[in-house]
Amino acid sequence: MTAQSRSDDAASSSNSTNSNDSTKQIANNHAKDLRKETAMPILEAIDITKDYDSRVLHGLNVAIEAGSFVAIMGPSGSGKTTFLHILSGLDRPTGGTVKASGEELTGMKEKDLAALRLRRLGFVFQNPHLLRTLCLLDNIALPGFLAGDEPREEIVARARGLMASMGISELESSDVAEVSGGQLQRASICRALINDPEIVIGDEPTGALNSASAAQVLDIMGEIRARGTTVVLVTHDPTVAVRADRVLVLVDGKITDDVALGRYSPDAAAERTARVTSLLASRGV
Ligand SMILES: Nc1ncnc2c1ncn2[C@@H]1O[C@H](COP(=O)(O)OP(=O)(O)OP(=O)(O)O)[C@@H](O)[C@H]1O
């Protein structure tokens, strides 16, 4: 066990009570009015292709419903991250169209895309890209300041509420280098949520965490989604994918499987894990 994972374990056990509260508070902070949902997909990929030296995405079509939790899986190099970046406006496709709530991202100017990413999407990566020059509270509040829609005190209050909900209140003034990987990832989820996004995008958000911290992050993701925020994750890990209600498998830049698992419940975890594992095995993953 590494020093980092030991400190994650300590953090996760000392924060277990907070984590239970966490979910309620996230819910309050990020409750979406489900009645506002429409039948229009919140994200839609139409005939997406991407060429580097050769073609890596081959005409992908996916419609993601508002409020759903989608896991994208597949072998290394199959195009998962490329597709996620295109879906979320971090990258542009070579061909095809991406729509967010019916609005085309593909032809948007970079300035408008950046504004959309800032206000409507929240990103959680395997390695949290927090700024070393800022304390955790300021890192979390920063996207709120950048959006510039609200008084700073309100943004800071929301950042504090999110930190409390994730059990990391005591780390407000900490430097990025002073906290464990699990705590850092919880801070990066707070940052992703600060502008109350419609969609949380994750690229292996538990990939660098020990199992206790990973489970905590997954519980948080599940709660975010349970309140109506759409969650789209890339993952290699079947224990992450079983939390999703839909699993897409990408092999050689094509969607080979699109499987509806239904809502996660812990009682069905083993059965769902077996289903996802056998699906991946059938694709040679
Ligand atoms: N910026 C780039 N320039 C050139 N080729 C790239 C670039 N980004 C990705 N690729 C190539 O595109 C293909 C798909 O890469 P991508 O990272 O999307 O796969 P992945 O399924 O996410 O892989 P992993 O699971 O290992 O992260 C790979 O062959 C990769 O080498």
Walk me through what this model shows.
By secondary structure, this protein is of the alpha/beta class. It has one domain (3-282): Rossmann fold, CATH 3.40.50. The protein is built from ten helices and ten strands. A six-stranded mixed sheet has the order 6-7-8-3-9-10, with helices on both faces. A four-stranded antiparallel sheet has the order 2-1-4-5, covered by helices on one side. A hairpin with a 3-residue loop joins strand 1 and strand 2 (55-64). Helix 1 crosses helix 2 (16-30). The structure holds adenosine-5'-triphosphate. Residues 52, 56, 74, 76-82 line the site of adenosine-5'-triphosphate. Adenosine-5'-triphosphate binds at residues 52, 56, 74, 76-82.
Secondary-structure blueprint of this entry?
Layout (H helix, E strand, L loop, with lengths): L2 H12 L1 H15 L12 E9 L3 E10 L4 E5 L6 H8 L7 E6 L2 E2 L5 H11 E5 L10 H12 L4 H14 L15 H13 L5 E5 L7 H16 L3 E5 L3 H4 L4 E6 L2 E7 L8 H14 L3
Parallel strand pairs: 3-8, 3-9, 6-7, 7-8
Antiparallel strand pairs: 1-2, 1-4, 4-5, 9-10
Helix pairs in contact: 1-2, 2-6, 2-8, 5-6, 5-7
Pfam family, one: ABC_tran
InterPro entries: AAA+_ATPase, ABC_transporter-like_ATP-bd, ABC_transporter-like_CS, ABC_transpr_LolD-like, MacB-like_ATP-bd, P-loop_NTPase
GO molecular function, one term: ATP hydrolysis activity
